[in-house]
Specification:
Elements lengths: L8 H19 L24 E6 L6 H16 L3 E6 L1 H14 L5 E5 L14 H10 L6 H6 E2 L4 E2 L2 E6 L2 E5 H6 L13 H13 L14 H12 L17 H14 L11 H9 L5 E4 L2 H9 L1 H5 L1 E4 L16 E5 L6 H12 L1 H10 L4 E2 L10 H4 L9 H4 L11 H8 L2 H11 L4 H17 L1
Parallel strand pairs: 1-2, 1-3
Antiparallel strand pairs: 3-10, 4-5, 6-10, 6-11, 7-8, 7-9
Helix pairs in contact: 2-14, 8-9, 9-18, 10-11, 17-19, 18-19
């Protein structure tokens, strides 16, 4: 009895769950972030004479860079702070950021991928105040966001999630129908078994598939992690210490990937992120995993392909639930900057609804939003073929699953350990057993160091 009220087991469990949730939100700096009430407006007073350098990944859709730079120019007009935006290929952002972290000089802001900021968490400006403000104002962050943006080491948010270039199955409608399957996204294969049957049927009719197995930051990592998790495999246990990659579930995932590899076009072992885009638009493959960039390019330059393609979410494997990874991107500020307030104000500016909505809508939804309020953006209602990308961040798992993002997970991702394991097994460079052992050895060195 408490205050004269009887506490039932169900009531106790409900109250305990609410308390645990509240503690987690407090630890992440997210108190009240799930509310939808308007937050008190926040701005950071910029330093006198401030200027900013921003390093970010290069565009994959042609409207990305112009709109991003227009938003930056409007920030300059509003604050008087010049902003220079520099672009690098996806694989080159992290090495450039690492060099800046080591020498203590370079861009003020970096927009990179996954848990990259955790590699140099002690060299970043905390952004908890900004993360809390955005969460409160825009309905809360999706669950994966604090896992990436918050640093237990610093007891603070060290990065602001920007979103994720979402990934879905891109396919040719007429060829899927020719293979005997319904091309409607609502009826597209929903299980890994049915998906493999489709891929085999496509290959048998002269329409191979194609999935990157080279050092592809986006397309390589996303599909192999989906496959690993779909069969119950994982790199780490929830304690974030015990390596679990060497398991029957991982072996089952690799055997499935080997069967899928037999349906692919030759050469995928060397594919980087642009290769499947080109192969799809050239009519060389019938199906791949990719963002909306293929459809975006097709609408502009290959309208017949745009009309004959569609998107579907990844099928579900034996674990019975979605196991998706998307190209999570976040922005962070190096502590060597002379203008931390200007940098935080710039990030606040680009994440506010006027600028952010303009950017996402203009890219046809190439980046899926990290804040719940942006679920209602115009792009998600204007073109049904964009809809499968809308909930990418809401559905995704962190690449460190079932462990936590952090320096070790970031290094394992940077070294393509899981991608290499799949490539070794699929191409026959190693047996399934040896591919797993090689990955386990690499992971052991990473996590012990």
């Amino acid at each position: 009895m408490v205050d004269g009220r009887r506490i039932t087991r169900r009531r106790f469990l409900q109250d305990s769950a609410r308390a645990a949730s509240a503690l987690a939100l407090t630890a992440w700096g997210l108190e009240g972030a799930r509310g939808t009430a308007s937050a008190q407006e926040l701005s950071f007073p910029v330093e006198r004479g401030a200027s900013l350098r921003v390093l970010r990944w290069s565009q994959f859709v042609t409207t990305d860079r112009p709109i991003f730079e227009q938003n930056a120019a409007r920030f300059t007009q509003r604050t008087g702070v010049p902003v220079r935006v520099e672009y690098e290929t996806w694989t080159d952002v992290q090495p450039k950021a690492a060099a800046a972290a080591n020498v203590g000089s370079g861009p003020d802001i970096v927009i990179g991928f996954f848990d990259e900021p955790h590699l140099w968490a002690d060299k970043l400006v905390p952004v908890t105040d900004l993360a809390q403000y955005l969460g409160r104002k825009y309905g809360g962050w999706f669950d994966v966001c604090p896992q990436y943006g918050y640093s237990p080491q610093r007891n603070a948010w060290i990065a602001i999630p920007i979103g994720a270039p979402g990934v879905a199955i891109n396919y040719r409608v007429s060829w899927v129908r020719e293979a005997g399957f319904d091309p409607d996204p609502a009826r597209f294969p929903r299980t890994t078994d049915e998906f493999l049957r489709l891929c085999r049927a496509l290959r048998a009719r002269g329409h191979p598939t194609g999935f990157a197995l080279g050092k592809a930051v986006g397309d390589g990592n996303t599909w192999v992690h989906w496959c690993l998790w779909a069969f119950g495999g994982r790199v780490l246990a929830p304690d974030n210490r015990t390596l679990t990659i060497n398991s029957p579930e991982t072996a089952n995932a690799l055997e499935y990937a080997r069967a899928l590899y037999e349906t692919m076009i030759p050469g995928v072992a060397g594919w980087l992120d642009p290769h499947n885009n080109r192969a799809f638009l050239a009519g060389e493959i019938s199906l791949t995993n990719n963002g909306i960039s293929i459809y975006f390019a097709a609408k502009n330059d290959f309208p017949e392909i745009a009309q004959d393609m569609n998107h579907a979410v990844f099928p579900v494997g034996p674990v019975g639930r979605p196991t998706e990874l998307h190209l999570f991107s976040q922005a962070y500020i190096f502590s060597y900057t002379r203008y931390p307030n200007a940098a935080k104000e710039f990030l606040r500016w680009i994440m506010e609804d006027t600028q952010y909505a303009r950017w996402i809508n203009g890219m046809l939804g190439y980046v899926s939003h990290p804040l719940r309020a942006y679920t209602n953006l115009t792009v998600w209602r204007s073109d049904p073929k964009a809809l499968p990308f809308r909930d990418a961040v809401a559905r995704m798992l962190p690449h460190s699953y079932a462990g936590r993002p952090g320096p070790e997970a970031a290094r394992a991702m940077a070294e393509f350990v899981v991608v290499d394991m799949f490539a070794d097994a699929c191409t026959g460079r190693r047996s399934v057993r040896d591919a797993i052992r090689a990955a386990e050895d690499r992971l052991r060195r990473i996590y012990r160091s």
